[in-house]
């Protein structure tokens, strides 16, 4: 089995190699995405997350974070049947002195969710879960882009 997995190119995700020794994460307030990114950097890379921008080699700046919910389909009575959930972030990484490590970069994720007004509480819970999963995916994509930027 090991030979089959190795032959297909499968490899366990190891330590991320970010191109900075220290990084400051610029998120305003108590931001869940920022907390997840901080945790991911601390536990999967050798990069140290610092609390002051002047102590960092790189500054991660969240420029925007947006969630949208768009109606996709309606039934014959005009009630919503499906929504599209969109989670979009724009960020950049720089040194604080004018040098851009990563210019403003947008990542946008989309998921479809069916809707049933007779199960409103369950659908709201499902929506929160989907946004949480999208957030975890965003963190992984941000990590991969920062890692690739150093190559």
TrEMBL record:
Presence of the UniProt keyword Metal-binding in the record: no
One example of a Gene Ontology biological process annotation: lipopolysaccharide transport
Gene3D superfamilies, sorted: Lipoprotein like domain
GO molecular function, one term: lipopolysaccharide binding
Subunit details: Component of the lipopolysaccharide transport and assembly complex. Interacts with LptD.
Protein name according to UniProt: LPS-assembly lipoprotein LptE
Role: Together with LptD, is involved in the assembly of lipopolysaccharide (LPS) at the surface of the outer membrane. Required for the proper assembly of LptD. Binds LPS and may serve as the LPS recognition site at the outer membrane.
UniProt similarity note: Belongs to the LptE lipoprotein family.
GO cellular component: cell outer membrane; transporter complex
Keyword Nucleus: no
InterPro entries attached to this UniProt entry: LPS_assembly_LptE
Organism: Pigmentiphaga aceris
Keywords: Cell outer membrane, Lipoprotein, Membrane, Palmitate, Signal
């Amino acid at each position: 089995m090991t030979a089959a997995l190795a032959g297909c190119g499968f490899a366990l995700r190891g330590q991320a190699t970010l191109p900075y020794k220290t990084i400051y994460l610029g998120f305003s307030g108590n931001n869940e995405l920022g907390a997840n990114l901080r945790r991911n950097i601390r536990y999967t890379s050798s990069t140290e997350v610092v609390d002051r921008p002047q102590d960092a080699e790189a500054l991660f700046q969240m420029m925007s974070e947006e969630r949208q919910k768009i109606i996709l389909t309606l039934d014959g009575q005009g009630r919503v049947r499906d929504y599209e959930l969109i989670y979009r972030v724009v960020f950049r990484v720089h040194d604080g002195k004018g040098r851009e490590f990563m210019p403003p970069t947008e990542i946008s994720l989309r998921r479809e969710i069916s809707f049933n007004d007779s199960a409103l509480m369950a659908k709201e819970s499902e929506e929160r879960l989907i946004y949480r999963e999208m957030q975890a995916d965003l963190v992984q994509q941000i990590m991969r882009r920062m890692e690739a930027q150093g190559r």
